[in-house]
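sry for the spam today, last one i promise. struct tokens for design, 387 residues
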């Protein structure tokens, strides 16, 4: 489809505070249960208000700290033009600007709602484009950008997306450009004791995982179902609730499949996956026996060799590591709160019953060490370089 046939409803502007023209709806928002939602919210289940934006900002900051940078792909030369899809408050663009602050990089933010501030006021080469991502093609020229970044669980995900979103975004990349997507899963499992370092993890990535008290995820990483009864309830309700929006509670698996398709379009692909527990884990605080080479039995008699053991003491979480885990927990508690209307419906509870459940969840997770079994947030980054 050529630029001439693009929908006329999208709007590009340098002001992030612009509003739809008079022939459009006066406001793109509506209010439910005291929270602000997009008026046409049949494919996006979360509120669009300050509380939710703050949660998403904390999530972005956490992921950047765990990954060690605003992106995971191997950017050899500073990109000249960057597109942030579903930019929200544009925190990622601001952080990326700081990363490249001595380079001449321009940023474009794309979102359905005019949320971000005007970053030009703080010296960023910035423009905001208001556009509904359900309407394709996007209002950009082919091969316009050097880097396209997506950091949202629900954008370009789910059963309603009938095309490969990674392939679709690649259209707007220059040759050699990179598309990168960050996701976090929305159902929670328990990480089992002593998970191995994922195959292909670099020394620098392993060091960062140790520094942040996170665990690299690979095919051999052992997980089991959540042992916390509140998260068990939530896992069922969120899966059923998101299905009604055509969305999935495990977007990491879906985006991994998207990147594995149409590989002939790419010079290279890559990924990183991490798990961060929501708090101290019981098996992290236990002494671990380490088996060494077998030794001959004492005395002259013959007999089987017996292994030698020492005990490895696990280091306690530092204050910074504990803060990272608490941030992960706060992000998820905030997500459950944002999903309340959907979860109440799926649970079949009355509002009073829900309020009691919600109070019990907060007490169990925040005060009663209800996450000692190893419940964790699973997250990942996937990227591809266009051939």
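last one done:
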């Amino acid at each position: 489809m050529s630029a001439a046939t693009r929908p006329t409803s999208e709007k590009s502007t340098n002001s992030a505070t612009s509003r739809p023209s008079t022939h459009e709806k006066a406001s793109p928002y509506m209010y439910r249960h005291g929270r602000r939602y997009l008026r046409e919210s049949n494919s996006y289940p979360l509120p669009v208000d300050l509380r939710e934006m703050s949660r998403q900002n904390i999530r972005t900051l956490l992921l950047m700290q765990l990954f060690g940078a605003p992106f995971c792909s191997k950017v050899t030369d500073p990109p000249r033009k960057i597109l942030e899809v579903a930019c929200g408050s544009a925190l990622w663009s601001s952080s990326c600007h700081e990363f490249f602050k001595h380079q001449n990089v321009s940023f474009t933010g794309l979102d359905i709602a005019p949320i971000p501030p005007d970053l030009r006021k703080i010296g960023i080469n910035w423009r905001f484009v208001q556009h509904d991502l359900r309407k394709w093609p996007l209002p950009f020229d082919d091969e316009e950008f050097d880097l396209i970044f997506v950091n949202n669980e629900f954008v370009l995900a789910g059963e309603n997306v009938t095309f490969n979103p990674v392939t679709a975004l690649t259209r707007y990349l220059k040759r050699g450009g990179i598309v990168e997507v960050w996701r976090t899963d929305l159902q929670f499992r328990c990480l089992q004791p002593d998970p191995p370092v994922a195959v292909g993890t670099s020394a620098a990535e392993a060091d960062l995982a140790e520094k942040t008290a996170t665990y690299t995820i690979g095919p051999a990483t052992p997980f089991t179902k959540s042992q916390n009864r509140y998260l068990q309830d939530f896992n069922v309700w969120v899966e059923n609730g998101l299905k009604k929006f055509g969305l999935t509670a495990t977007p990491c698996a879906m985006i991994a499949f998207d990147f594995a398709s149409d590989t002939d379009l790419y010079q290279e692909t890559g990924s990183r996956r991490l798990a961060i527990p929501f708090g101290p884990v019981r098996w992290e605080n236990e002494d671990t026996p380490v088996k060494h080479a077998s030794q001959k039995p004492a005395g002259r008699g013959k007999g089987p060799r017996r292994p030698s053991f020492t005990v490895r003491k696990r280091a306690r979480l530092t204050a910074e590591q504990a803060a990272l885990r608490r941030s992960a927990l706060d992000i998820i508690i905030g997500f459950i709160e944002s999903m309340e209307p959907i979860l109440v419906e799926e649970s079949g509870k009355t509002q009073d019953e829900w309020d009691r459940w919600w109070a019990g969840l907060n007490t169990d997770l925040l005060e009663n060490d209800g996450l000692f079994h190893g419940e964790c947030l699973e997250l990942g980054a996937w990227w591809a370089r266009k051939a």
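Residues 1-25, 291-295 have pLDDT under 50 and may be disordered. ok im logging off now
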